[in-house]
């Protein structure tokens, strides 16, 4: 009863938050009734009233692109090596189109600037604000063609109208960056893409209008512009239980925050609730990810550079319009309805960073190493998207290469398809040595899966795991009925069965013989 009441209170809190209307009509503010020529001018006007907003943003990972992990290391977009576009070093104007600021062109960016904060990217309600993909976080202030060579002209947004229409962030605002990580819709995460803007109940029970109709910040609660929940500081096991306003830290970025750690009811409740000691909720309730839009699962940088007979770049697509080859980027594979990879996880992940010495094994390297193990109370079996790639490595200095990929200058790979020149320039900008030698490693990178929760009727079935070759086939440290066997014990058991059966048969014959004699 307590759990039901707490869940009801949380639901009421969500409904109140979703129905919340602003107490200010920004159309009436004289500061916003002007023709803005830049995003920074809008921010300056916002700060006349919201005097502390920029300094609060300056403390957030949306601005710093850094986290301090429990192991004392600093991780974040600024220094982590991934296996998509590899690193932001020397590629800032493209990568920072998703930074919560304006003008992050290179490592000289002033992180203390208040007017460089982008208020509109989170608070636009008109769905007309768009940060131009190659302008270091700025929207386009004049008409521009995008994509290049397409003939499609993007008109500049009316910054005055947008500023006067600001409100609480919606899924479109969060998704403008998070759905498009890796350079396009559905590319990177696998469980975050534009299908979540208005999802069906079957796709996501939390965000669907037929379900809870939650906004992102209903779970990723935010105070003073600091937002709960991130892959860099993930809560693998929530020991707080249900969180409601005034209870604990009010951080709801976990399943337990709303559903408690014994969420199941009915005949199987006791058995299913026991599973929460071992499994993350997501492992059962997200049977597959990328259910509507395919996600990128393979990227081979070593194949880049191939040109057609006229010496022009090549672009090849699959039947859904996804690029399967680009001369500037290499080969790709896309997959829909992906069954996650499962592993023990305690919320801590070790990332490969720029300049870190690494030792590949047989040409392979895991860019991420998961913390956690069986028997650890802080660990659960979690689902992941494991991105695989083939990317450049310096075998002499034993570091992953951070090449200069973006730009039309003479040194970028995009311009001349020269890996050595691109790597040398990129490494110089990133402050790392480069030997001139290049190898390509097969790399893996883990992305925790936590969105696209399916209806309970579509949860993973028992036999999907409790069998040989099932979903948990490669997860060690547990004895799983139906999957794991002690062959000697099985043989003893079967002998006992046959002996028991023989004894029953002999006993039956004995009774028959005795009855006939009588």
Architecture overview:
- With 518 residues, the protein is an alpha+beta fold.
- The chain contains 15 helices and 17 strands.
- It has helices at 2-19, 39-47, 53-57, 61-64, 92-95, 120-123, 159-164, 171-178, 216-219, 256-259, 269-275, 281-285, 413-416, 419-430, 487-517, and strands spanning 67-68, 74-75, 144-145, 153-154, 222-223, 226-227, 295-300, 315-317, 323-326, 330-335, 341-345, 349-351, 364-366, 368-370, 380-394, 399-400, 439-448.
- The longest helix is centred in the last third of the chain and has 31 residues, at 487-517.
- It is globular and about 115 Å long.
Note the topology.
Blueprint: H1 2-19, H2 39-47, H3 53-57, H4 61-64, E1 67-68, E2 74-75, H5 92-95, H6 120-123, E3 144-145, E4 153-154, H7 159-164, H8 171-178, H9 216-219, E5 222-223, E6 226-227, H10 256-259, H11 269-275, H12 281-285, E7 295-300, E8 315-317, E9 323-326, E10 330-335, E11 341-345, E12 349-351, E13 364-366, E14 368-370, E15 380-394, E16 399-400, H13 413-416, H14 419-430, E17 439-448, H15 487-517
Parallel strand pairs: 7-15, 13-17
Antiparallel strand pairs: 1-2, 3-4, 5-6, 7-10, 8-9, 9-10, 11-15, 12-14, 15-16, 15-17
């Amino acid at each position: 009863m307590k759990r039901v009441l707490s869940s009801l209170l949380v639901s009421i809190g969500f409904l109140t938050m979703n129905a919340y209307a602003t107490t200010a009509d920004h159309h009436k503010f004289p500061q916003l009734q002007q023709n803005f020529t830049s995003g920074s001018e809008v921010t300056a006007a916002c700060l006349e009233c919201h005097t502390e907003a920029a300094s609060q943003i300056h403390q957030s990972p949306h601005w710093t692109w850094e986290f301090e992990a429990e192991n004392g290391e600093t991780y974040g977009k600024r220094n982590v090596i991934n296996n998509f576009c590899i690193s932001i070093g020397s590629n800032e104007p493209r990568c920072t189109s998703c930074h919560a600021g304006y003008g992050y062109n290179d490592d000289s960016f002033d992180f203390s600037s208040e007017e460089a904060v982008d208020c509109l990217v989170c608070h636009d309600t008109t769905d007309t604000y768009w940060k131009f993909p190659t302008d270091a976080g700025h929207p386009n202030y004049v008409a521009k063609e995008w994509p290049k060579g397409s003939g499609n002209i993007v008109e500049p947004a009316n910054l005055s109208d947008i500023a006067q229409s600001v409100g609480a962030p919606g899924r479109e605002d969060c998704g403008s960056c998070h759905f498009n990580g890796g350079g396009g819709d559905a590319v990177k995460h696998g469980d975050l893409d534009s299908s979540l803007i208005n999802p069906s109940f079957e796709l996501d029970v939390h965000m669907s209008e037929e379900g809870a109709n939650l906004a992102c910040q209903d779970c990723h609660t935010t105070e003073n512009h600091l937002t709960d929940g991130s892959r860099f500081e993930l809560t693998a096991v929530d020991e707080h239980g249900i969180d409601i306003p005034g209870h604990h830290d009010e951080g709801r970025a976990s399943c337990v925050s709303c559903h408690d750690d014994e969420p199941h009811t009915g005949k199987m409740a006791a058995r299913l609730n026991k599973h929460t000691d071992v499994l993350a909720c997501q492992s059962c309730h997200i049977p597959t990810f990328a259910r509507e839009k395919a996600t990128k699962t393979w990227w081979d940088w070593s194949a880049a550079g191939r040109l057609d007979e006229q010496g022009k770049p090549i672009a090849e697509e699959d039947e859904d319009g996804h690029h399967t080859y680009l001369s500037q980027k290499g080969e790709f594979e896309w997959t829909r309805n992906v069954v996650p990879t499962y592993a023990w996880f305690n919320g801590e992940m070790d990332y490969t960073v720029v300049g870190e010495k690494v030792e590949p094994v047989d040409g392979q390297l895991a860019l991420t190493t998961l913390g956690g193990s069986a028997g650890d109370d802080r660990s659960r079996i979690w689902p992941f998207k494991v991105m695989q790639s083939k990317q450049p490595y310096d075998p002499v200095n034993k570091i992953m290469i951070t090449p200069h990929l973006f730009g039309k200058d003479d040194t970028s790979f995009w311009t001349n398809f020269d890996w050595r020149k691109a790597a040398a320039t990129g490494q110089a900008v990133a402050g790392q040595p480069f030997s001139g030698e290049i190898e390509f490693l097969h790399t893996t990178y883990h992305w925790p899966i936590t969105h696209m929760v399916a209806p309970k009727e579509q949860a993973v079935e028992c036999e999907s795991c409790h069998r040989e070759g099932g979903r948990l086939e490669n997860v060690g440290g547990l004895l799983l009925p139906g999957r794991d066997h002690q062959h000697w014990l099985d043989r003893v058991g079967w002998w006992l069965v046959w002996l028991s059966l023989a004894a029953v048969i002999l006993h039956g014959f004995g009774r028959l013989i005795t009855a006939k004699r009588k």
